[in-house]
């Protein structure tokens, strides 16, 4: 393993740990619900989900774009996530439904 990759992994790991650990120790009872810190903390969940989605989808898209198409399981899973979330406004239900749709598409196709 190259030293640059190991260094990057350690830095990212330490920052991720700090970002998850320190908010649990902070006294958040004094912040305003509509303040900038509250808005920042509320936006980190969706930002993390979007980042993980892009990181997991990008390799599939790169591989299939060379074959002139978007993989059907990816399209099915993403569509079901969006539709389920639009209908139910539940991240949990949308995630589970998208996973099931992706799995079924892989199995059937």
TrEMBL record:
The chain crosses the membrane at residues 36-58, 65-85, 91-108. It comes from Cypionkella sinensis. PROSITE patterns: PROKAR_LIPOPROTEIN. Keywords: Membrane, Transmembrane, Transmembrane helix. This is AzlD domain-containing protein.
């Amino acid at each position: 393993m190259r030293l640059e990759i190991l260094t990057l992994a350690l830095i990212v790991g330490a920052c991720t740990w700090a970002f998850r650990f320190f908010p649990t120790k902070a006294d958040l009872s004094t912040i305003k619900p509509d303040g900038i810190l509250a808005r920042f903390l509320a936006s980190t969940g969706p930002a993390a989900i979007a980042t993980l989605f892009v990181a997991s989808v990008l390799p599939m898209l790169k591989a299939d774009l060379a074959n002139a198409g978007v993989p059907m399981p990816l399209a099915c899973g993403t569509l079901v996530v969006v539709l389920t979330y639009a209908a139910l406004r539940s991240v949990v239900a949308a995630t589970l439904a998208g996973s099931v749709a992706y799995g079924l598409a892989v199995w059937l196709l």
